[in-house]
Amino acid sequence: MTAKIAYDDVEVGTELPAQTFPVTRATLVRYAGASGDFNPIHWNEKFAKEVGLPDVIAHGMFTMAEAIRVVTDWTGDPGAVMEYGVRFTKPVVVPNDDKGALIEVSGKVAAKLGDNAVRVDLTATSGGQKVLGMSRAVVRLA
Amino acid sequence: MALDQSFVGRTYPPTTPYEVGREKIREFAEAVGETNPVYTDPEAAKAFGHSDVIAPPTFVFAITFPAAGQIVEDPQLGLDYSRVVHGDQKFAYSRPVRAGDRLTVTSSIEGIKSLAGNDILDIRGEVHDEAGEHVVTAWTKLVARAAEGA
Fold first, then answer.
1. Domain tally for chain B?
2. Do B28 and A35 touch (CB under 8 A)?
3. What residues of A are in contact with residue B86 (Cβ under 8 Å)?
4. Is B44 a domain residue?
5. d(Cα A99, Cα A116) in Å, to the nearest integer?
6. Is the N or C terminus of chain A more exposed, i.e. has fewer CB atoms within 10 Å?
């Protein structure tokens, strides 16, 4: 079994199913533990404000991990991802309430490359702000 | 103070192997809300042709970033880490990271730029398995913001 989306079934402009990912303070504490990134700007409000941030912010790598799910949920096999890159343009600000923040991610096929590979361009926003730029993945389809 | 351009091209010694465990992958997958069984169920991973559970695409950063510590904390380079933000991140995979891998990272400095008082450092981490085969390359751009009043 390989990717569940066939190269011949997609064209430039094909949209991937968009997803919304919630992120709360608890999410960030958990991600800190799993990733080993304990920078206090991701869990300590006092520290975050002292270094000039509006509040605690999500790990950029957390946002990066969420955004690629739009691609891997579409292909089925995450092993089909050949390249993935992002620019961290704005932080995802996570207030200390039970709602937290939302990361909204959409993607579309931007180019059909050789060898069944396509380039997907992703858009990620939070609070109406674009949080990732140049967010691109190359993935091999069936 | 601008970073020393002569560090561009410098390669640091490979790290001691990091052994990728199934339960570490599970912990990471759950922390990012993943539900794909290819990360937690060896049988589901085999159905996709993987010999064991694989790791989410960004998992390897938890290995490459500590490896980049050799550069970030190199006293001769003198990066002010308290002012560093993560600018860009990119990965290019030869294959997914999977449970049982013993991975080494060889880090090098690809570029140093100074822009409007900010120091921009491009680091490349080459990740290889125990057999010496390439698994993934990670490119990390760090930006040390200009010190206030500098």
1. 1
2. yes
3. 60-61, 88
4. no
5. 41
6. N
